[in-house]
Amino acid sequence: QLQLVESGGGSVQAGGSLRLSCTASGYTYSDYCMGWFRQAPGKEREGVAAIYTRGSNTYYADSVKGRFTISRDATKNTLYLQMSSLKPEDAAMYYCAADPPPCTLNNGVEYDYWGQGTQVTVSS
């Protein structure tokens, strides 16, 4: 059973940066699509970024392109989301998810494995 644990959330002022981490366990970290999703109160869950573990292709939502970077460290079974130039509208609960390829963002309904989430708060 694949398990995902997020960390790194917190409170930051607009314009600031945060790095989220997601550590995976319980499987061989080889051929998965790993993604970050977020959900703010009263809003639908949305895909933020995804990366294919075999080949490192990356995918981003238009709203975060140029500000967020998804990456992974296969030696540590860890996925990262570097968030810069944060805006109040980036505030949400952020979730890490995994699924066999192909990679999709959408709202994550295709993803089978989820972490518990980490809260990001951005003050103006």
Which SSEs are present, and which pair or pack?
Blueprint (H helix, E strand, L loop, with lengths): L2 E5 L2 E4 L4 E8 L7 E7 L6 E7 L5 E3 L7 E6 L4 E6 L8 E8 L13 E2 L3 E6 L1
Parallel strand pairs: 2-11
Antiparallel strand pairs: 1-3, 3-8, 4-5, 4-9, 5-6, 7-8, 9-10, 9-11
Architecture overview:
With 124 residues, the protein is mainly β. Helix content is 0%, strand content 50%. The protein is built from no helices and 11 strands. It has strands at residues 3-7, 10-13, 18-25, 33-39, 46-52, 58-60, 68-73, 78-83, 92-99, 113-114, 118-123. Strands 2, 4, 5, 6, 9, 10 and 11 form a 7-stranded mixed β-sheet that branches. Strands 1-3-8-7 form a 4-stranded antiparallel β-sheet, with no helix packed on it. Strand 5 (46-52) and strand 6 (58-60) form a beta hairpin.
The ordered string of helix (H) and strand (E) elements is EEEEEEEEEEE
The structure class reads: mainly beta
- What does the average pLDDT come to? 93
Distance between the termini: 40 Å
Low-confidence stretches at least 5 residues in length (pLDDT < 50)?
none
Number of H- or I-type helical stretches:
0
Multimer state: single chain
Shape: globular
- State the share of residues found in helices, binned by percent: under 10%
Q: What does the radius of gyration come to? A: 13 Å
Strand content: over 45%
Main beta-sheet annotation: 7 strands, mixed
Give me the count of strands.
11
